[in-house]
């Protein structure tokens, strides 16, 4: 068997301008969502339960 470790896939919002402003990156894991500061890729990572993340996104979409 060949078990290769894969790097996490981090992505930014499509609303991010890419001009170095304030932005977060998100990585989807099997049972959590990870969030980090895009300007500090090697900095701390916040891991949030997938259900809690969904509730947060729904609430944010409502304004």
From TrEMBL:
Species the sequence originates in: Actinospica acidiphila
Database matches in Pfam families: DUF397
Protein name listed in UniProt: DUF397 domain-containing protein
Domain named DUF397: residues: 9-60
